[in-house]
Amino acid sequence: MTDVWSYRGKRVVIAGCFSGMGECCAAELVRLGAEVHGVDIKQSPVSLASFTEIDLRDPASITTVAAKIGGEVDAVFNCAGLPQTFPALDVVTVNFLGTRLWTEQWVPRLRKGGAIGTISSTDGSNYLARLPLLKEFIAIGDFNKSRAWLETHAADVGNGYKFSKEALNVWTQQQAFALAPGIRVNAILPGSTATPMMVEFEKFAGTAVIDLFTAPSGRRALPMEQAYALIFLNSSAASILSGVCVPTDGGFTGSAAVGEIDVAALLAEAMKAH
Length: 274
Description:
alpha/beta; Rossmann fold; seven-stranded parallel β-sheet; 16% strand
């Protein structure tokens, strides 16, 4: 009988395995028996089947590295990303355009029943508020033309991190339809998580604002907790799940949605401290 929780015998690729959630994800996949091929702009500390340096801002780097790894895979893990302290154009390029192009290299090589899992963010939860704009951007398709669009729509884009995560959420749900049946596509939307990148988030928003999103759990998530959720979504145990953007935030999104948390009041209080 097949163990739906196991990754033994599976071949996977993971982008963004240097630190944080991606490092935890890569390490746990290795422990679960997967053949893990990782890419990042910095060397991963995890003992992988292979590691290759990649620059997700560079289309040539993306296509070259994917071709070098080659072969078929059972799952794609998209864990790479930049915070808001980088220029908005670079943030959207890495977080969305590079991630999308990297994924596109693997879609033809995904075995039947394969899955794509992406780390998005609760910061992209309000994507429906500007769905037409996001769909216009995503529909461009071409990497360089998309960057040009970003430059001419800088005012519409605003916060590059937020925009990139909104785009990821829309794209995840579009691809779940486009690649069905046979390939599942999902994302997790982490809330405040104790990763090395959190220092950059605190520089941008302040600790008080970051920590308001820890209600009702009262703590920041651990990187491995986010890794577990993503690994589950790409596992055979989640075979009916596709097109899902799962808030992995200790209950904040759900509590806010039904009015148990007054987000505006909490934000106003946190801004006083910032």
